[in-house]
Design a protein that fits this description.
globular, MoxR-like ATPase, five-stranded parallel β-sheet, ATP hydrolysis activity, ATP binding, Rossmann fold, alpha/beta, binds adenosine-5'-diphosphate, 2 domains
Length: 356
């Protein structure tokens, strides 16, 4: 695959060099079917400065250990949490480390069907030669089972319940029936290395609606927002600068501007009176920081400013309700005015740029 010009290549391509080095130096025991040892997989995710492995997920290391252990058992792994807490990123990184590929992915939604999960048919061939392994078109679940790899199921709770339940026998009996085929081909047995990582947002239709039978087949792990201000700021800075570089912006962001942005996000996420109904997640902060940098560079040829934050916030913060816009306006008028320094003053000064 040529990876030039791709907007976002998968983790195994973005970090191909790190993965190769980890695998070459990997002396640990690997669980059956795994591409890396557990120890190397963990280092790929949380980083290891002395070996030039970048930190990709910020947070509790013991969560990574529990997640990896779950995947080596016969239960699936369910990552739950607020939107924008890096559940999808984590599942991608884990799949890249454990299986060498993160692209056996099913995106859950109201219209997800069993065909998109298990397999479908090449209809031209089905008509001309009937059902056969040649006319079968494997979907991620069948491929993951046959190849012994991790399958990612994103936002599983957005799928209809009966569709979710098609994971029951792959998870418990490790077999997928293909009743259209005959003989040995009618049963696909999972190879070592196969398992499922699902993610679910607590803001969507909840995991409590999921069938008890399916819940029993997963270990649940909650991914929490980043607790510490300095850690969140450092992550937003690193991610936003990487995005800006890829967007052709030649200067890094102003740290003081990012500091204002991240504290405003934290206020709007947690404060009782200012809390918005829209989720002001770290992922949203990264995306606003990216937009702020783009405005500065492509509109004026300089770094993004605190005033740019106001322009970029409106589209992020006022999605769910018009109350949010009013709250945001009040925040910029009152709270921002009381905070120290020229960047807060600029943020306050730009409050009239909010629409409406
Ligand atoms: N703890 C974290 N570690 C690393 N990146 C994080 C973290 N929390 C949020 N992010 C940022 O959010 C982005 C990922 O969000 P995503 O995986 O789509 O979240 P979710 O699936 O939980 O909605 C990352 O690319 C990163 O920029
Ligand atoms: Mg996600």
């Amino acid at each position: 695959m040529t990876t030039e010009n791709l907007q976002r290549p998968p983790a195994e391509v973005r970090f191909a060099d790190e993965l190769t080095r980890l695998r070459e130096a990997d002396t640990g025991d690997r669980p059956p079917g795994w591409w890396l040892s557990m120890e190397a997989a963990r280092r790929f995710i949380v980083g290891d400065e002395s070996h030039g492995i970048s930190r990709k997920f910020v947070g509790d290391v013991s969560l990574i250990d529990r997640a990896l252990i779950s995947l080596a058992t016969s239960r699936g792994l369910m990552l739950v949490g607020e939107p924008g807490t890096a559940k999808s990123l984590l599942s991608e990184l884990i799949a890249a480390a454990v299986s060498g590929v993160s692209t056996l992915t099913i995106q859950g939604g109201a219209a997800t069907t069993e065909d998109q999960i298990k397999y479908s048919w090449n209809y031209a061939m089905l008509v001309s030669e009937g059902p056969s392994t040649r006319s079968l078109v494997p979907a991620p679940l069948l491929r993951g089972m046959a190849e012994g790899r991790l399958v990612r199921f994103e936002e599983i709770t957005r799928c209809p319940l009966e569709v979710q339940d098609c994971l029951l026998s792959p998870l418990s009996d490790r077999v997928l029936a293909v009743p259209e085929l005959e003989g040995a081909d009618a049963m696909v047995f999972a190879r070592e290395g196969f398992n499922i990582i699902a993610t679910a947002n607590t803001r969507d239709r909840g995991v409590n609606e999921m069938s008890a039978a399916l819940k029993r087949r997963f270990n649940f792990e909650t991914v929490f927002p980043i607790a510490d201000f300095a850690t969140e700021l450092a992550l937003v800075e690193q991610e936003a600068n990487a995005l800006l570089q890829r967007s052709g912006v030649k200067i890094a962001q102003d740290r003081d501007v990012l500091e204002v942005l991240v504290s405003a996000f934290r206020d709007l996420r947690t404060d009782k009176s200012d809390r918005l109904t829209t989720v002001m997640s770290t992922a949203e902060a990264v995306s606003v920081a990216h937009a702020v940098g783009l405005r500065g560079w492509y509109l004026r040829g300089e770094r993004g400013s605190a005033a740019d934050i106001v322009d970029c916030l409106a589209g992020t913060a006022a999605k769910d309700s018009t109350d949010d816009l009013a709250k945001l306006r009040r925040y910029l008028e009152q709270r921002a005015a009381k905070k120290p320094g020229p960047h807060w003053a600029e943020l306050h000064g730009a409050r009239h740029r909010l629409p409406g």
